[in-house]
Amino acid sequence: MEILRPIYYSGIGQRKKNEDFLYPENPGKKNNLYMVCDGLGGMAYGELASKMTALAVRQYMSSVETVEAESIKDSIHFANNLIRHFIDEHPKTEGMSSTVAMLVQDKKDFFAAWVGDSRVYHIRDGEIMFKTRDHSYKEWLIERGFEENTEDIGHIITQAVGGKKKVIPGLEKINDVQHGDYLVLLTDGVMEAVSENDFLAFFETKKNSEDILQEIVKLCSENSKDNHTLYILKIK
Q: Which helix (H) or strand (E) holds 45?
């Protein structure tokens, strides 16, 4: 399964700095790992946390001979332990952590893994074939049947890489990827600017990936206060 030229964007929004990080920054044909990370902690080094998370995952996965679910989870545990160790050595960074949403290609199949509220979408003709489930208090309540009580709940995530000594990544195998499908990774700043329905509508059209990205970026630039990052991968 071949990916057409991956395209991406990361914007600062109305923040003073961009604490999002994406990998790879210069994708090539041999890439099989894609990530977006959203650093948390503000003055507590969120910008560093997102970069450390992505680079630690990349380092671990580069040593893996066979892509498997457990090795992908282990790469996130590796990143989590690295950040916790860094915090122990540099107490002033307590509070730094990061979300991560990652996509790993294994021949014709893909694995999606995540921690926090950065997302991976598998989209076909504007319809969701798969979407990661946010690690958030709101999602926790919805899963337990309390959806009607979540309208006024703020966006509070329940997990982040480096946030605690133990992290439980989400992981799913995406094995029904077809020609013309889209795989999209994004941080939460994108969904601050555009509703999910409007976001999906961009992928109903026969526009190319560059045009879709340009329209989403325009909305993010106009409406998102937060950093916003996304990767768009179209299947050839």
A: none
For the record, the structure tokens of 206 come out as: 């026969």
Specify the DSSP class assigned to residue 25: S
Choose between 109 and 153: higher pLDDT.
Answer: 109
Nearest to 234 by CA among 198, 208, 214: 208
Q: List the one residue out of 72, 73, 63, 93 whose CA is nearest residue 162.
A: 93
% the chain with pLDDT above 70 = 96
Cβ(21)–Cβ(231) below 8 Å: no
> What's the one-letter identity of residue 228?
H
**Residue 7's pLDDT band (boundaries 50, 70, 90)?**
very high
Q: CA 24, CA 1: separation in Å to the nearest integer?
A: 19
Assign 3-class secondary structure to 128-163: EEEECCCCEHHHHHHHCCCHHHCCCCCCCECCCECC
Tokens 């989209």 correspond to 123
Structural element, H or E, at residue 114: strand 109-115
Q: Decide: 157 and 116 in contact? Cβ < 8 Å.
A: yes
Q: How far apart are CA 236 and CA 179, in angstroms?
A: 5
Tell me what the mean pLDDT of segment 14-32 comes to.
Answer: 91
Give domain 7-233's CATH number out of 3.60.21.10, 1.20.1510.10, 3.30.40.10, 3.60.40.10. Answer: 3.60.40.10
Tokens of 148: 């009607």
User: Residue ranges of the domains in the chain?
Assistant: 7-233
Q: Record the tokens describing residue 210, joined without a space.
A: 């560059």
